[in-house]
Amino acid sequence: MKVSYKVYHLPFIHPFTISKGTKTHQPTLVVKLQHFALSGYGEAPAIAYYNIPVEKMVEDLEAKRGFIEKFAFTDPDRFWHFLHHLFPQNSFLVCALDMAAWDIFGKIKRLPLHAYWKFNLENTPITDFTIGIDSIEQMVLKIKENPLPIYKIKVGVEGDVETLVALQKITNASFRVDANAGWTMEEAKVKIPQLHGLGVEFVEQPIDKDDWEGMKELHAMSPVPLIADEACVHENDVEKCVDHFSGINIKLTKCGGITPALRMMANAKKLGLKIMLGCMNETFVGSAAVAQLAPQADYLDVDGPLLLSQNVGSSITYNGAKIVFPTTPGLGISEVDF
After folding, report:
1. How many domains in the chain?
2. Are residues 125 and 270 in the same domain?
3. What are the pLDDT digits (tens) for 201-230?
4. Would residue 336 count as lying in a domain?
5. Residues 141, 154: one domain?
6. Final residue belonging to a domain, choices 112, 137, 162
C-alpha cells in the first residue's frame, strides 16, 4: 500500500462553542491509502480535549509509514489490529487509516459498505443539527438559517434552561441537549427535571466523565435518557455504561474507527443500551464513514459538513435532515484532491 495525507484547517460558518471552549476552525487530517488500483480515504479531526493534535497524527504516521506500506492488506479487521498495536496511543490516526481500509474493502467487494453489512437504509434515523453555545440572538439566527426537525443544543453555562425556553418559542423542532460534562452534580439534579418539562429528548454527558457514582445516581432519578459521550470512548467503556446511562454516543475518531465501532454497536445492543452515532465536525470524508453505520443507530448526529464553510470531498448529501447515500462502492467518497 501507499500512504499519503493532507492537513486542513477548515473554518466554521459560526464560531463553535461548547462548555470546553470555542473554535473558529477545525483542524483535520485526511489520509489516502492506495492498494493496487484502488484508493481509500479516511479522516480524523483534532479535538483539543483529547490531546491528539494533527501534528501528532502526522508525526506518528511519518514515523511508521514504512510498516504500513509493507502491510499485506486482505481485510479491514486484520489491518485494524495491526494499526492498534502500531499506534497504541493514537486512536485518531488509527481511525483515519481504518476508514480508508474499509473504503478500499468496499471497492474490492463492489458494494457500498452498508450493503456489504446488509443494513436496511429504511432504518436510518434523521440527523440533528448542532447549535453551539452563543447569545440567544445568535442561537436563534442559527436555527432560522437551518430550519430542521431536530436540534442538539450545547449547554453548560449559566442560563441554560432560560436559553432553551427562548429557543422553543421560535421552532416546533425537537431538542436534544449536550452538556459536554459541563454541569456539576448539583446543577444536573436541578436542570434535568426542568429540561424534561420542556420536552427535551435526551441529555448527553451531563457531568464529569469520571464521576461514575454521580452518573449512577443521576441515571436512577432522571426522567429523560442520559447518553454517554466523553465517558464512553473505547470498547471497554461500553459495559461500564450499563446502569449509569441509557445509551452511548459512538464517535469513530475517539474509538479508533469503523472496526471497533461495529463491535461497540453489537455489544450495546446486547446490553440494552441505545446507540447514538456522533461526529467531531468531520468533512464529507469522515461523515461518509459515520453514515454507512447509521442504519444501526437510534440517534444520529452527523452534521459536520453543515457546520463548516469549507469542506473536503463529496459523499453523502442532505435532504433536510435525511441522509442521502451515494450508490458507489465503499464509503462513496469522490472529488478528494490529492
Report:
1. 2
2. yes
3. 999 999 999 999 999 999 999 999 999 999
4. no
5. yes
6. 112
Q: What is the DSSP letter of 160?
A: H
- pLDDT single digits (tens) 106-146: 999 999 999 999 999 999 999 999 999 999 999 999 999 99
Task: Give the sign of the dihedral formed by CA 229, CA 59, CA 30, CA 4.
Answer: negative
Pairing mode, if any, of strands 21-35 and 2-18?
A: antiparallel
- Structural domain including 76 reads 2-112
Q: Rounded CA gap, 148 and 172, in Å?
A: 10
C-alpha cell recorded at residue 273:
443500551
DSSP letters for 4-61: EEEEEEEEEEEEEEETTEEEEEEEEEEEEEEETTEEEEEEEE--GGGT--HHHHHHHH
Whether the pLDDT of residue 60 is over 90: the answer is yes
Entry pTM: 0.96
- Amino acid identity of residue 214, one-letter, is G
Taking a C-beta distance cutoff of 8 angstroms, is the pair 78, 72 a contact?
A: no
Decide: 154 and 178 in contact? Cβ < 8 Å: yes
Burial class (CB in 10 A: 0-12, 13-18, 19+), 161: middle
**Residue 145 shares a structural domain with residue 173:** yes
Same domain flag for 186 and 280 = yes
